[in-house]
Specification:
The protein is an all-beta fold and about 500 residues long. It contains 2 helices and 40 strands. The termini are far apart.
């Protein structure tokens, strides 16, 4: 008597797309851009071989039938009445999966749970074992993986069994978030023409979407004199490029209102706006009709340059007037000495004043030039400079003194103990003196700026006991004259 096991097993693979990167340089040779693009490869992961490797007590040792995603087993085991029930009853199969895609797959699970029914109260058991592959093991792109499926049958009694069973072995893969790029380009040296009454003109943009989902985007420009529209003049809003495609889009330029131009062309950067950031596609040259009435090639006109002394060491305030048909952006002030040696200073401002600092005593005049928003520069256009109005105008020459000298005229019986030889304007002055033996002060005279000062408030102070002279605020050159007499004479 024979015991027979008929077992059907189905092997199913679950495929999930992955993505990989190829160099974009070769692909870019066709579309004229550079960067990276992500593409989805061809191929599949499939069962390509099922081989019966070994068996015991199997009466039909044949290769099972299979497709790319399933295997059907029909196993016949002989259990004769005189058989030893401890004998081995098994079949071992080598199963090969071939990954012909450009993606890696992960072996997620292998489950083999047959449902066994017999007419003899299930007088046998069936087990299985999968080896040669681990959960989570990667099957790399363009490779094969062979693993082993062992089916064991354990009879409990001799007899005639008609056993059927079906089970699945799953190879699964966790889905990976797709990656890709959204790129765009315009032809080199792109330009549009809005001359001779043309209302709008276009630039063709190539957009590449290597994601496997559609992507949205928009365009903008950095020149407010123009706007982007479609072929009918409607505002150009958001656009969508399908998944894994290369598309071209016509972007039309149109004047933003009734604008006149002083030049025959303008430029604008075309911006590609997308979720992961904006991309400048380059500059577009926009040809326009030039309005000659707006042409300005003259620098600002400067007049009424005035230089005012500041009672602070080394400072002079310079003011002036200026006119121009365009906005004046800044001025250049030349500080010139009596030898006509000049030092230039950019004000960096449209304010019509400047304070010169760090000057020493001397004679100075100041020249002023203007720069307008068109870049017209008076210093490059002026052929001379006078006190009259022009691209350059200057102040009259003036002599400025901020540091004053101190002169001591002392007779032979008095000497200076301490005191400076120069004093900065508005600083205080103090000097002390030493009187000779048997001498007394006869006369003390102080002049400042050629004017004789009186002792007391508003002039100078004199402390005969301490031999000290003080001037609170110096405004001119100082001359101190002191004479003495013998103590037998009446002093001051």
């Amino acid at each position: 008597m024979k015991n027979k096991l008929n077992l059907i097993v189905t092997l199913i693979t679950v495929s999930i797309f992955l993505f990989t990167t190829i160099g974009y340089a070769a692909y870019g040779a066709r579309v004229g851009v550079t960067g990276n693009v992500y593409v989805k490869g061809n191929g599949e992961i499939a069962i390509t071989s099922v081989v019966l490797d070994s068996y015991s007590n199997l009466s039909n040792p044949t290769t099972p039938t299979f497709t790319k995603d399933s295997i059907t087993f029909d196993l016949n085991f002989n259990v004769a009445s005189n058989s030893n029930l401890d004998d081995d009853y098994y079949a071992v199969y080598d199963i090969t999966l071939s990954n012909t895609t450009f993606f890696d797959y992960e072996f997620a699970s292998a489950v083999f749970t047959p449902s066994v029914e017999t007419i003899n109260n299930q007088n046998m058991t069936v087990t299985y074992d999968v080896s040669g592959v681990e959960i989570g093991e990667v099957i790399p792109k363009l490779t094969t993986k062979t693993f082993t499926l062992t089916i064991n049958m354990y009879p409990k009694t001799p007899g005639n069994y008609n056993v059927g069973g079906e089970s699945n072995v799953d190879v699964e893969q966790e889905e990976v978030e797709p990656t890709g790029s959204l790129l765009a380009s315009i032809p080199k040296n792109s330009q549009v023409s809005l001359r001779n009454g043309a209302v709008r003109d276009k630039v063709t943009v190539t957009v590449i979407n290597s994601y496997d989902i559609a992507k949205g985007f928009s365009f903008s420009i950095n020149n407010s004199n123009f706007k982007l529209v479609d072929s009918n003049g409607n505002a150009l809003g958001s656009l969508t490029v399908p998944a894994n495609t290369t598309q071209t889009y016509d972007v039309y330029f149109e004047k933003n209102g009734n604008i006149a131009f002083a030049t025959d062309y303008q430029t604008a950067n075309l911006i590609f706006n997308k979720n992961d950031g904006n991309l400048s596609l380059g500059s577009v040259k926009i040809l326009v009709d030039k309005d000659t009435t707006l042409l300005d090639d003259e620098a600002p006109i400067i007049s009424d340059v005035q230089a005012t002394f500041v009672a602070d060491n080394g400072k002079v305030n310079v003011t002036w007037s200026a006119t121009d048909v365009n906005n004046i952006t800044e001025f250049i002030v030349d500080v010139c000495n009596s030898s006509n040696e000049c030092t230039s200073h950019n004000t960096g401002s449209s304010s019509r004043n400047y304070q010169a600092t760090g000057l020493s005593n001397g004679t100075y005049y100041f020249k002023v030039y203007g720069i307008d928003s068109k870049g017209n520069n008076g210093k490059t256009q002026a052929t001379g400079c006078d006190t009259t109005a022009g691209y350059c105008s200057k102040s009259t020459s003036s002599t400025y003194t901020w540091v004053f000298s101190v002169t001591y005229n002392l007779d032979g019986n008095v000497t200076k103990a301490s005191g400076p030889d120069t004093v900065v304007i508005n600083d205080s002055f103090t000097a002390t003196f030493t009187l000779g033996n048997n001498r007394q002060y006869n006369q003390v005279t102080v002049t400042m700026g050629g004017n004789t000062l009186t002792s007391g408030s508003g002039g100078y102070t004199w402390n005969a006991n301490q031999n000290r002279m003080t001037i609170n605020s110096v405004t001119g050159n100082i001359v101190v004259t002191i004479t003495t007499s013998s103590t037998s004479n009446c002093g001051i």
